[in-house]
Target: Formate dehydrogenase major subunit
Amino acid sequence: MATSSDGELEPKKSICPFCGVGCGLTYNEDNGKGTGWEGPVNTRGELCPKGAAAFEMLDADDRITQPMVRENGHLVTASWEEAMDRVAENFGEIVEEHGPEALGFFASSNCTNEENYLLQKIARKIGTNTIDNCARLCHASTVAAMGKQLNVGAMTNTTDDLGEADVFLVCGANPAEQHPVIFNSYLGAALRDGTEMVHIDPRENQTTQQADMHVGVTPGYDIPVLNAMAKVIIEEELHDEEFVAERTEGFEAFEEHLADVDVAENAELAGVPEENIREAAHKVAEADRVASFTGMGMSQHKYGTDNVHALINLVLLTGNIGKPGTGVNPLRGQNNVQGAADVGASPSSLPGYQSVEDPEVRADFEEAWGFEPPAEPGLTEVEASHAAGDEIQGLYVFAENPAITEPHSDRIHEDLQEAFLVVQDLFMTETAEYADVILPGSAWAEKEGTYTNTDRRLQRVRQMRSPPGDAKSDLEIIAEFGRRMTDLEIDYDGAEAVFDELASVSPIYAGITYDGIGESYQRWPFYEGAESGVDILHEDEFYGGEKTAPFALVEHIDPGDEVEEGELVLTTGRVMQHFNSGALSRRTETLMRMRGEDVLEMHPTDAEERGIEDGDWVRVENERGEVEVEVAVTPAIAEGTVFMTFHYADPLVNRLTGDYLDPVAKIPEYKHSAVSVSKTE
Ligand SMILES: Nc1nc2c(c(=O)[nH]1)N[C@H]1C(S)=C(S)[C@@H](COP(=O)(O)OP(=O)(O)OC[C@H]3O[C@@H](n4cnc5c(=O)[nH]c(N)nc54)[C@H](O)[C@@H]3O)O[C@H]1N2
Ligand SMILES: Nc1nc2c(c(=O)[nH]1)N[C@H]1C(S)=C(S)[C@@H](COP(=O)(O)OP(=O)(O)OC[C@H]3O[C@@H](n4cnc5c(=O)[nH]c(N)nc54)[C@H](O)[C@@H]3O)O[C@H]1N2
Ligand code: SF4
Ligand SMILES: [Mo]
Model:
């Protein structure tokens, strides 16, 4: 048994708590730091600086070690008994007065499959499907588009085979900084070996530096580029005729849909040279194998789902799927964002991507669980926040930090005060400050369970020490919540027992066992009777058994914000040294030393026009809010576009972003906001 609340750590082979790469990570007793073990992904034990510093936050000054409840407007410490009573009483009253749909649950892509599975089961037993996770803010549109055309929204290929590509087509993703170990160890090796890379991105970043070709698209204008590439390919008859005939549907309609596309016009609209588009089209069409990658630059738009459809069309047109070194590859965000959705922390699907709307599925779950899950899909994350005070009266936020990460922060901060708010977290986060009850949970090194990484591999995270003070295992907290709120029998003997139940209700996990994962991994889909999980999807037929996949007819629609004369387009994102809301990385001294504060990246021409110099402080504002920030003048950002991260509480960039939601996936448009920038006095 791992020890002590005095913080001593027992080294065990665990998995990094940051990104979806899923590097093997353990504790080095000699120097007190994180160190890689030769894991399934980081086979040489390599880590990025975040992984290496992952132990530092465990004992941060504001680590919450006792439950807290709000008394007369102030948060005060309480016993577990008092805190859980408070939750059960208030949630109980809400259910009685307004019905179970008045409760909303944010599950967590930072936490284990078992924790997420149990929370969604409890929410459904209480009687609501309003349970979501931050995939909604992230790859929801990717998952929707891939689901529609390919039947499943996960990476089609694996890190091990991607290197066989002749061309990497990277759209709106920056893997050199956001997925550094995959980039350096897998993609980088291929690039050094002759694979070419086309990078479609408004910002020159570390990925662009290694690209053969940069298409510097204006944020929100990817469809003009991708549709024009398809047009060039069809016009010059460069498409894969055999694949199109045998494995796709609707080619004629697609060709007709593109009839009006004028490559030069589209290029101008997207702010890129026409030649650039033609050259990119040739590279993609003439290569034997192309692996495509899609990231937040594509997904986080008002029409993010359409963006991804446009990319999948190119993949189908050139027959680049179902083989090593090809496919549609969304590199997933958090350590367990793939898993959170796989296990049903979603308003529309039950574990294993089984639809809540399908009566047969619900009947199966009724047999397994002893109750029928509700049929009506629940609210998505931003919808649920905005419904606070109306349809939603109680919110349970498990390991998310919406006060920093949801768009249009001023509105979200009001929302968070409108509901009875329960926060289960590690630290006094910006969201926890609004809580009515805080339940102190366990960090990655203090728990057992499984995470599912970006290429569908389940790996085990191991307990190396006990949670500090009165903090408890997250799984135990959720179980206790479930016992208070429902008559479910919740008497699992640890994570493995929860996993066994999860596997028994998810056909895609049928062959996976906790022991089978061991110190290695198992990949889904792993069907009953199979010897292992499926590595490359869609080989002879598409997932689910379809022989063909359809083209999708999409065209450009303007982003939500209109950009007025004199305004700039703000696009937001990440840097290598920090992680999401910064809840973990801002509590990590090593990372704060590497990048202590945010800057606004601005093109020299835009700076000069406004009399701004490198290092000046500026006010960035629009109708939603304003922030003050230091400027970094750099030609790496496209003219007319400015860039900031969302890793800091101040400046809080989401005060500026809009809550336009993609009509299909309900993802917000983090990547395009109109702003004015002026020098502060
Ligand atoms: N270091 C680090 N790593 C992380 C994270 C982190 O916070 N820090 N977060 C994790 C998470 S949750 C996620 S989801 C992933 C995300 O990983 P990525 O998908 O790489 O995410 P971003 O850096 O937000 O955006 C990618 C790129 O999109 C570009 N972009 C912006 N607007 C547009 C546009 O309209 N079109 C195109 N084509 N490109 C555009 C940006 O310039 C940026 O280079 O990273 C994960 N890994
Ligand atoms: N402007 C802008 N905003 C964005 C984005 C963008 O590109 N631009 N990207 C969006 C994307 S892709 C994402 S994924 C979201 C992320 O949005 P969030 O999920 O809200 O962000 P995180 O910082 O990952 O929040 C994780 C929270 O969980 C807590 N935590 C971590 N591990 C544990 C644990 O083991 N147990 C418990 N109990 N708590 C834990 C942390 O302290 C933290 O408060 O942000 C979105 N917001
Ligand atoms: S690449 Fe991702 S999983 Fe690997 S060490 Fe860095 S943050 Fe952790
Ligand atoms: Mo994400």
